[in-house]
TrEMBL record:
GO terms for biological process: proteolysis involved in protein catabolic process. The lineage of its organism: Eukaryota, Metazoa, Ecdysozoa, Arthropoda, Hexapoda. Keywords: Proteasome. It holds the Pfam family Proteasome. This is Proteasome alpha-type subunits domain-containing protein. One of its GO terms (cellular component) is proteasome core complex. It comes from Cloeon dipterum. PANTHER family: PROTEASOME SUBUNIT ALPHA/BETA.
Length: 63
């Protein structure tokens, strides 16, 4: 055994490959932003959504 935790290395590589996101909570609302980098020139960037409303009080960002 080399002492490496391969699962942690895979998780860190997945984080590096994902888009950066930020959320800011204010007294009167929330702002959520994320990068929108197309993976291919064949992808219509207007059809790719990375911010979704789960319910009236819950939103999420994914890459």
């Amino acid at each position: 055994p080399s002492g490496k935790l391969v699962q942690i290395e895979y998780a860190l590589a997945a984080v590096e490959a994902g888009a950066r996101s930020v959320g800011i909570k204010a007294s009167n609302g929330v702002v959520i932003a994320t990068e929108k980098v197309p993976k291919s020139i064949l992808v219509d960037e207007h059809s790719v959504h990375r911010v979704e409303e789960v319910s009236k009080h819950i939103g999420m960002v994914y890459s």
